[in-house]
Write a structure and sequence with these properties.
heterodimer; A: 372 residues; Rossmann fold; 2 domains; five-stranded mixed beta sheet; B: 344 residues; mainly alpha; ABC transporter involved in vitamin B12 uptake, BtuC; 14 helices
Chain lengths: 372, 344
Amino acid sequence: MTRRCIERFDPAADYFPEKAILEDAAMFHVEYRRSYKVLTVNGGQPADPRERYVLVQCGAPPPPLTGDLAGAAIVSVPVSSVFAFSTTQLPLLTDLGRIDVLTGVAQRDAITDPAIQRRVAAGAAVEFARVGLVVDVERVVAAHPGLLMIGSLSNRAVPPIRAAGIPVVPNAEWLEQTALGRAEWLKYMALFLNEEARAQSIYEPMKARYLTWAGRIRAIPAAQRPLVMTGRSSNGMFTIAGGKSYVAALIADAGGRYAWNDDPSAGIVTVDIEAQIARAAGADIWINGGGWKNLRAMLEQEPRYAAFKAVRDGRVWVYERRQTPSGANDYWSRSVTCPDIVLADLIKIFHPALGRDHAFEWYMAVPGSGAR
Amino acid sequence: MTRRELIMIAGLAVAVFAAFVLSLAIGSTRIPPSRVVEALIGGGVSDEDRAIVMAVRLPRAVTAMLAGAALGIAGLQMQTLFRNPLADPFALGVSSGASLGVALVVLGSGSIAGLFGSTTGLAGDALITAAAIAGAGSVLVLVLAVSSRIGDATVVLIFGLMFGYAVSACVTVLVGASAPERLQQWAQWGLGSFSGVTWPRLRLFGGLTAFGLALAAVTPKQLNALLLGDRYASSMGLAVRRVRVMTMAGASVLAAVVTAFCGPISFIGIAVPHLCRGLTGTGDHRVAVPAVVLMGAVVALAAQTVSVLPGDGTVLPLNAVTALVGAPTVVVVLLRRRRHGGHV
């Protein structure tokens, strides 16, 4: 049923017997009404208003867009072709085993998954934002995909593409305040493909593994939890994870104390190097910077990094273990739906003894350091 | 120099000192003044405080001081060169030329990261600075070539603006073709900042700005003569062409160096010379040069200090501060001067 269209519509029938039950995600919400799903989702930026979409099973008559549905956009499901703007959206399709619907990617250079690379090479998926991640509106309209999943709805390409009758939905996964919530966006993609059951079957065991890992560090007293800093500096300004970001939550779950714990923002935030020094000069471990060949190059780029204990101790960790020379990073392509592995990596960094049975997946110490 | 002018200069020097002290005392984090002093004299303070004062605030304040002086002098030189009160490194496209030089090196080498020092060390800085100077110089030469044929200062200014737009367009094309994470860095560079210049970079930055400032310091008489017109200047036995070229070179170096290291910082270049004329009441370069150097330093230091006032790591874009705080000041000064019968 889920993949086929309705031939003879029965208003009393429940066409979605398999329903997504959201446990952790906070940035979207779904409600099932027999032949359509009502999806409410954040627009993709912190201040964006929530938008409403009506996902109608194909073959069913669309409901009148009045009352709580006024102003909602209609998407016919299941969609059979998807344009994905960000590489972080690709694992949602890969995990569901549905890259067969992927017909457009933003930039092929950023793709690390060989199966998707082959798909692009074979012409089954086109590139639609090759130069500077600017969406090539004409290319999208010409291909007329069943769905364009974009980063933020404030992207200037959205109005003309919508005007051409192509449904555009945002993806605000990065604004989730927990890593599990972020991973649950697997179910978001599933809504459009009627793959709720499969999404649940993937999400559940992953969540169990995550909680098992998190359970390992529960007994560690606060005094033994390392102080952790994030980000990197550009011209004296540090881009760091917000205090209410999923990264901050991961640090806490991995048994670390985040230096900007009381910061109120989700996603990322920019602070000046002075404030970072004031808070994190004594941090034991530095994670999620990147782009450094070794510690010496790091200090050459920004001599003030020497103010951080983590640098002097050589405890700087980046998620670049699986990065191609061209800069495509497997972390961005797969970590969204595998927070259990990210957590295990972090636990091994913060509490090596507790992660002895785990092999690093994405994280590595910046070389030139006496990495522990 | 009259007694009044001397007092003005002395007052400005005191203001520079005060602004310098303030910018060391105030940052985005709170450090009691006593601990700032301790850190400066090498007393017993925490490593954090020492790093913040010695590695962040001190080089930032020195950079602000030099950059402010440099932009002010570049603005003064251009206003004199074009005999136009609206001339400044921005209006004439010189800053855009410097940006293009920077973008060409950085994007040409395939790595905008070089601009922000992430892949290149000081050798990279030198190359980028040279490119910025070349870019700024070429635009200025073009504008001057036009101005030597067309006497109308307004037309020349419009030419400068058009060059600026064209050059900015080239930068936009270059930037548009680069990766998104680099775009973010580029955007941040465009906001302007004195925080990116660390001690090792300050040597190059300081050396070049000192050179440019020295050039202005030894030519006040020649600049005065230029102000009275080329014919008058040559009748006084001045090698007009040489003075023009030298002044032009000095202005390009100053504007380009600041752009390369601190980003395109607007407003200071045009505003500071006006503020000084308003204060001292004279266009005489023997007064104007030292006054502009000091006033430029005060304005830049003050802007830097205001930009970190929100506290706890939040920093206002420097360009927003220079314009928001500076524009009304200039308007007030000009209006008061008009009331007192002065001219711009």
